[in-house]
Design goal:
Strand order of the largest sheet: 5-4-3-2-1-6-8-7
Strand content: 15-25%
Helix content: 25-40%
Structural class: alpha/beta
Order of helices and strands: EEEEEHEEHHEHHHEEEHHHHHEHHHEEH
Shape: globular
Distance between the termini: 18 Å
Number of helices: 15
Radius of gyration: 22 Å
Number of strands: 14
Largest sheet: 8 strands, mixed
Length: 403
């Protein structure tokens, strides 16, 4: 083993996919990135790009039966570039784990007790935690000698006060079934709030930021002095903003109404709200680029979907402005937040009295770097800050194993 191994492999294991990145924490450089998808299907696909060697993307399609086979295939690709899992330069493997409940408030070295607690949280994260555990078990089998670290999507939000985290239902029932607001996209919100402070030339402890993580899944957070005090997602990632296929906020009685009058089962309603709602439910598309193209062509259905999306977004900006009292910046991030200029402009339109405005020319610029899109005279900065969840996971993992 080298004296100071500095590489971290980041794994994000889904139910039928594994996303991965290999980073060198000596300088934060990405050495390799890749994706295995359609695991368990007749034909799986692996796409691997060895950035360190300057090689182009390599793709292969073959049957990949399970996550063990997927990680073995990843290991083969990395080894072909001289960066295999047996490398003495590899310091740790960092795993994205979606739900850590109230117990895990920071990155955690994985033990049997940690895995058991992640398993106990499966009822509140049935789609995500099982896949995360599978990735952990497989990586442990491949490198049992190497530190494995769990970085939790929920951890950044554990600083919320009880007044924000509690739902107004019977306390004993809520506690018995772990019902509260947990929040998600935490690694993104942590990274973006910190990078926004850096963009303003301030320490995170001095800055209040509203972070808008807008992708197919979308969430907002109110961050005071580097600590989350409220977030839009709740017990699950269904609550909050209008998303690509998720409804976000709605009257809970809609569920009872559908069960009683439409005869829908719990599973059917679950599928409706998570997979057939949001933008795709409103207009049949969940790609903001296509929605904007349809709007430009005069499509009224797409225009209404966009207006509903922006209306909800604007409500959360106003609500979190009230929660924070003083706001230094509003930061847009993730696929839609970073690339959809019309969404950013519409979200702050009419909020000039709150000190929010967008400069049309600055907003139209496309760039990979954090940037301000508000006029120089604006009281509140409006920023576009590309998120980097893999770097955040790697940073937290390396800090823990180094310590």
């Amino acid at each position: 083993m080298t004296a100071n191994p500095t590489r971290v492999l980041v794994l994000n294991s889904g139910s039928s996919s594994v996303k991965y990145q290999l980073l060198d924490m000596a300088d934060g450089a990405r050495l390799a990135v890749g994706l295995v998808e359609r695991i368990g299907e007749e034909t799986s696909r692996l796409a691997h790009t060895p950035l360190a060697t300057g090689g182009g993307k390599r793709e292969r399609e073959q049957p990949i039966a399970d996550h063990e086979a997927a990680l073995n295939a990843v290991a083969e690709e990395l080894a072909a570039d001289g960066m295999g899992l047996d490398s003495p330069e590899l310091a740790a493997i960092g795993h994205r784990v979606v739900h850590g409940g109230r117990k895990f408030t920071e990155p955690t070295v994985i033990t049997e007790e940690v895995v058991a607690e992640i398993e106990r949280l499966i009822p509140v994260a049935p789609l995500h935690n099982p896949a995360n555990i599978t990735g952990i078990r497989t990586a442990q089998a491949l490198r049992p000698d190497l530190p494995q670290v769990a970085v939790f999507d929920t951890a950044f939000h554990t600083t919320m006060p009880e007044s924000a985290a509690r739902y107004a239902i019977d306390v004993e029932t809520a506690d018995a079934h772990r019902i509260r607001r947990y929040g998600f996209h935490g690694t993104s919100h942590a990274y973006v709030s910190r990078e926004t402070a850096k963009l303003l030339g301030k320490d995170p402890s001095e800055v209040n930021v509203i972070v808008l993580h807008l992708g197919n899944g979308a969430s907002a957070s109110a961050v005071r002095g580097g600590r989350c005090v409220d977030t839009s997602m709740g017990l699950t990632p269904l609550e909050g903003l209008v998303m690509g296929t998720r409804s976000g906020d709605l009257d809970p009685a809609v569920i009872f109404h559908l069960a009683r009058t439409a005869g829908m089962s719990v599973d059917e309603i679950d599928s409706l709200l998570n997979k057939k709602s949001g933008l795709i439910g409103l207009c049949g598309d969940n790609d903001m680029r296509e929605i904007r193209r349809r709007i430009d062509a005069g499509d009224e259905k797409a225009a209404l979907a966009f207006d509903i999306y922006v209306h909800r977004l604007k409500k959360y900006i106003g609500a979190y402005y009230a929660v924070l009292g003083k706001v230094d910046a509003v930061a847009f991030t993730a696929g839609v937040g970073e690339n959809a200029a019309p969404v950013r402009e519409a979200a702050v339109a009419g909020l000039e009295e709150l000190g929010l405005a967008v400069d049309t020319d600055l907003n139209a610029v496309r760039a990979d770097e954090p940037r301000l899109i508000s006029p120089g005279c604006a009281r509140v900065a409006v920023a576009v800050v590309p998120t980097d969840e893999e770097l955040e996971i790697a940073t937290q993992t390396y800090a823990l194993v180094s310590a």
